[in-house]
Amino acid sequence: MDFKTFLDHFETIAQAPNGIAKLRSLILDLAVRGKLVPQKPEDEPASTLLSKIQLDKEDLIRTKKIKADKALPKIQESTLDFEPALGWKWCYLVDISQKITDGEHATPRRSSSGYYLLSARNVKDGEIALDNVDYVPEDEFSRIRKRCDPDKGDILISCSGSVGRVAVVDKDNTYVMVRSAALVKLFQNYIYSQFLAYALRSRSIQNQIIEKSRASAQANLFLGKIKEIKIPLPPFAEQKRIVEKVDELMALCDRLQHSQETRDHLRQKLRESAIAALMNAETDEELQKSWAIVRDNLHTLSQNPEDVNDLRRSILQLAVEGKLTYQKTDDETGEALIEEINIAKQRIAKQVKVKRMKLATSIPTIERSLPIPENWGCTYLEGLIHPEYPISYGVLVPGADVENGVPFVRVQDLNLKNPPEKPNKSISKEIESSYTRTRLVGGEILMAVVGSIGKLGIAPTSWAGANIARAVCRILPISNISRDYLVLVLQSQAIQSYFLEATRTLAQPTLNISLVEKAQIPIPPLAEQKRIVAKVDELMQMCDQLEESLRQSQQTVEALAASAISHLTF
Questions:
Q1: 44-234: CATH homologous superfamily?
Q2: Which of 26, 316, 496, 516 is most exposed, with the fewest beta carbons within 10 Å of its own?
């Protein structure tokens, strides 16, 4: 990929996840590798610059204006990240600096106003931030400046905590510093300050900084290590061209970022409006019109996975509020279905000789947590459960994994889409024999009640005979209600929010079974339950397709970015 192609794909790369940040990093990487602007043979080479700097430095040492630095070993090519471009030369940061020092080591006397006292927190990439700055009085300022005197064009580097942030000093005789920031005074006749700031922020040099700051528990970049930072130095004229090009491209990134933020804000408003229209539809005709708008503009409204997740949540919420499908007047009512469920439960209880069970109680309209259609009913989850298999959690102390033992279902095994053929852990038959009440028959709804509260799965037939962990509860509905409908209700935002609100935090978040039982479940006619499940399946497939499309698009964009990074040449 050549530079023109890179520019042609600039906006496309910006659309990748964190695309703008990647572009900014890429621009700086290209700049320090000599691939952002062309080299000119007539430019005075960096080797000549370094010779001139050395002569000037010797004069300053001789006149005792600066102190001589400890000599560093010759830079070995094998230690370099890349070969220098034409006219460039690698050097140490100390080679191009008059002085490298840090700020005041003692605790300066603060004041409510006065002169700025900078620390690492005030050194942001590209600027000195004064929104949270300390002040010192004039006498403290004068005292500290004798040692550390940042002036216009000097470089500041954060060297404690979040090390490696870089800023160029913008004013003379304005600042002093504490030791969490370092000062680099350049030979500005030969080094453009802004070029060095960009170079220090590049990935290659930031990697050096990270490596040099790992010596202690808290990241600290000591002065000796700062002096050893290796810099790829271009000719002076090229430094200026690089800065101009970087400034130009960073400004373009700023414009793209602003445009993206504006589009994202507008897209969010449109998506909220479209979903609100769905939620507030009062007739089948309004519902169908609203769905048509969402369907026809899906790619416009959803540009990232989180957008699709919002749509999934909205689909489930519409489903449990009866706004996803139409109601048929000839359907049996939800209240009638609740009565049938109770009759069926009593019959089963008599057959299997269950003495105690919880019947389905119709919840009055005023006590319902969700608005639902008039022909629906509403009851607690406990009333929908098969009498022989009440809601319960599993094995308290499973012991060690046992070869050829009883398969043991844990929270990590729960997966609605792709459950494992067999749980990964097995427990001893002796331990399992005490928990026959939670032995699986296959087809049960399983839900996490410890840790990942509300996570759901369905036990495949291959899990028959397995048992469950204490962190998992079994929910087996009576056949008079659609299991798949109940699963989507349990996934809905309304029910998941109820579970989270009911959760108490012990060692881990824990949801009591009695509170699981009291979850309110909207009960549409059985025929409508099946229509809802079919509609949800259809719409979730649409979401799957959209996610795949977004994934492929992101892969394409990321490939372009990777290609630009790896192959950009003149």
A1: DNA methylase specificity domains (3.90.220.20)
A2: 496
